[in-house]
Design goal:
The chain is an alpha+beta fold and 509 residues long. It has three domains: 37-268, Rhopdopsin 7-helix transmembrane proteins (Up-down Bundle), CATH 1.20.1070; 278-352; 359-487, Heat Shock Protein 90 (2-Layer Sandwich). The chain has 15 helices and five strands. Strand 4 and strand 5 (479-487) form a beta hairpin. Helix 5 (98-127) packs parallel to helix 7 (163-199), helix 6 packs antiparallel against helix 7 and helix 13 (359-377) packs parallel to helix 14.
Length: 509
């Protein structure tokens, strides 16, 4: 009843025996006899791909590529279920009612074609298009899927097709309309990620990204342009014609492409380990700097200040016994200058003793900054801060860098956006924190956000990069939105308190 890749096999009976005597006929017969095993392996490849990526979904990452992989994982898991359905649904024909089997075939076709939408989302995430463009293309692709399913159902009703013909028609159209654009978008997005990897110092992973882009192009050809044997296919390359010309099941070739994609994506997951090592190195450097600052504070307090203070006391004693009034005043002026120097050094020590960043501390700095900027710029600034209680450890220097990013973003809005209001949204989560500064004024020219951005924008990007995060700018006629996303490490032993750095040493004076 159900059309599966068995349609690619030679005919039964005497024609099959004759096929065994043709060149490659025994190979064809071998593939036909082991069709179920081939389909199971084909589905297993995609299942492993999706499951491997799914296991990493909770790990924090600042890379656009790793954050987008979850969409590829969902696509792969759906494909695995649908491919396994091609092997196991025909087996049920002997055990289940015909209507139930027909329902399973329809569900299989709808599910597999629906999975192509997630491949499109994967490509859109990699290309990092604006939210309006992404939502527009998402709606268009969803409408296209509904149109494909509906058009195939209408054609089946008018032409008297069975459920197998409807499934083949739906899959053929979905491969051409959804899978090919999705795979090509993903390939282009993968290729563009090479620049981000190079900027993050992950040069060894760049070749795998380029190879993955090439594999996705191959998948667009073999998985999208060679379509299912639908009633209307005709001379279009299809699975039955592929098997007739090559003697190799298309499922086997697609499975090989899927295996290459799986191996490459598993290799790309090393990005998480590289980022974890980079964060560990940054933490060790931060601790080394913290130790050096503590030593510097002790030396200033116990050595430099005490020496200057002793010198000031001797000069004061000399001034009291000086016979000349002018000399006495000069000496007391020097003592006053030394006292001023001591005060300056004490303030410097206080700056060095600044408390490490915490979620509440970062929130206080952002609130204080926005209040100050609202008074200076005289534009309305709305502040919303949430999630402080659930936040993971905040990297050292977060408050200082976010403060400067917010200052620059609000200043840009005041200078270039015209009359407007500004929203500052700071959101904490266990594995990420996000700062959004948006205005409702005149937007930034598209070219200004990339090739011709000013020094202020470059400084903001550099500050975000120093914190291990990324900064993105979205501009439209209705205003500009600047988003800073910072990953937070939640891998803290359960028996230890959640904090970022050791508390600074207290220096008594």
């Amino acid at each position: 009843m159900c059309q599966t890749p068995a349609n690619q096999a030679p005919p039964a009976g005497p024609e099959r025996e004759a096929a065994g005597h043709r060149p490659g006929g025994h190979v064809r017969e071998f593939f036909h006899q082991n069709e179920t095993i081939i389909l199971f392996g084909y589905g297993l490849v995609f299942f492993v791909l999706g499951f491997a990526v799914w296991l990493q979904r909770r790990r924090a990452s600042r890379m656009l590529l790793t954050n987008a992989l979850i969409w590829l994982a969902v696509f792969a898991l759906i494909q695995a279920l649908a491919i396994w359905g091609q092997a196991f649904v025909p087996i049920q024909e002997s055990y289940l009612d015909g209507d139930i089997v027909s329902g399973l075939v329809a569900l299989r076709g709808a599910l597999q074609s629906f999975g192509f939408l997630f491949l499109i989302q994967f490509g859109l995430r990699l290309l990092h298009v604006g939210p309006r463009v992404r939502w527009g293309l998402t709606a268009a692709s969803a409408a296209a899927w509904l149109g494909i399913v509906g058009a195939s159902a209408l054609a089946a009703d008018r032409s008297g097709w069975g459920v197998d013909a409807w499934e083949n028609s739906t899959m053929a159209l979905a491969r051409l309309v959804l899978l090919v654009p999705g795979a090509l978008l993903s390939a282009v997005g993968m290729w563009r990620q090479r620049e981000e990897l190079a900027a993050s110092g992950m040069l060894t992973i760049r070749p795998y990204v380029a190879t993955t882009a090439a594999v996705l192009v191959a998948y667009a050809v073999l998985g999208g342009l060679v379509i299912d044997p639908a009633p209307w296919v005709g001379a279009v390359p299809n699975e039955r014609g592929w098997f007739g010309h090559t003697g190799v099941p298309l499922a086997l070739v697609r499975g090989a492409v899927g295996l290459a994609l799986c191996m490459l994506c598993v290799k790309l997951l090393e990005i998480f380990d590289v980022e974890a090592k980079q964060r560990l190195d940054a933490l060790e450097r931060s601790r080394a700097v913290s130790d050096e600052r503590a030593r510097f504070r002790r030396d200033l307090h116990d050595g430099t200040i005490q020496s200057i203070y002793a010198a000031a006391l001797r000069l004061e004693a000399t001034a009291q016994s000086a016979p000349d009034d002018r000399l006495r005043e000069d000496l007391r002026g020097v003592v006053s200058d030394l006292n001023t120097t001591i005060d300056d050094i004490r303030r410097y020590i206080t700056d060095l003793s600044e408390t490490p960043d915490t979620p509440s501390g970062v929130a206080m700095r952002v609130r204080a900054l926005t209040a100050e900027l609202a008074r200076e710029s005289r534009i309305p600034i709305r502040v919303k801060i949430s999630g402080e209680g659930v936040s993971g450890p905040v990297p050292d220097g977060t408050g200082r860098h976010l403060e400067q990013i917010a200052r620059e973003a609000v200043s840009n809005a005041a200078r270039h956006a015209g009359p407007c209001a500004v929203d500052v949204v700071l959101t904490f989560a266990p594995d990420e924190m996000e700062l959004i500064v948006r205005d409702d004024g005149a937007g930034i020219d598209e070219g200004e956000t990339t090739d011709h951005e000013g020094q202020g924008m470059r400084n903001m990007r550099e500050r975000a990069r120093r914190l291990g995060g990324r900064l993105s700018v979205h501009s439209a006629a209705s205003g500009t939105r600047i988003v800073v996303s910072l990953p937070l490490d939640t891998d803290v032993p359960a028996d230890q308190p959640l904090r970022t750095q050791p508390l600074p040493e207290v220096i008594s004076e």
